[in-house]
Amino acid sequence: MNARLIRLVIAEDQAMLRDAFASLLGFEPDLEIVASVGDGDSALEAVRTHHPDILLTDIEMPGQSGIDISIALRAEKSPTHVMIVTTFGRAGYLKRALNAGVRGYLLKDAPVGQLADAIRKVAAGGRAITREIAETVWEAAPDPLNERDRAILRLAEAGRSNREIAEALNLSPGTVRNYFSEAVQKLGARNRMEAGRIARQNGWL
């Protein structure tokens, strides 16, 4: 009797890379790609539709991030395990991912054989984390931001004005200014743009 296939959803906004993942992993006899999507909202919808064993996702994508999706799936008590494959090798990203319930964290330059083995390990209930990143977690500075801080800094990073940010988050412009002041103070920055750079460099954004 053949072993049960490990069913995967792949979420990656770069079409060429998404197709490469699907093609290379499709050669593995025990892996089955059930959906391949290009943004976070579609990834969450695909998981809810197909109920895969593994969601293989990037961190930063249009719509929800890989970390956002993991938080949503954990809240829903979904049995799907989330694995992140990314270019972001900073400890701050890994800490946020682990806190969100992510089970695997690998870099995009990992060999496909290593990625396939990591998928099998996670599907069996284990964890798979790139060793070089894991070793930096213990020395990483604590993340001072909350989700509200992250939301306003991301919108500012995208060039949105205070009024636009207020409308997007259903807040008053004065409240947004206060939140920016708090985030800047937490990060020891001089202004909101520097705060965004500090947060991004540390993997907190």
Automatic annotation (TrEMBL):
SUPFAM superfamilies: C-terminal effector domain of the bipartite response regulators, CheY-like. The modification 4-aspartylphosphate is found at D58. The keyword Transcription does not apply. Residues 138-203 form the HTH luxR-type domain. Pfam families: GerE, Response_reg. SMART domains: HTH_LUXR, REC. Residues 7-123 form the Response regulatory domain. Keywords: DNA-binding, Phosphoprotein. GO terms for biological process: phosphorelay signal transduction system; regulation of DNA-templated transcription. GO terms for molecular function: DNA binding. This is Two component transcriptional regulator LuxR. It comes from Acidomonas methanolica NBRC 104435.
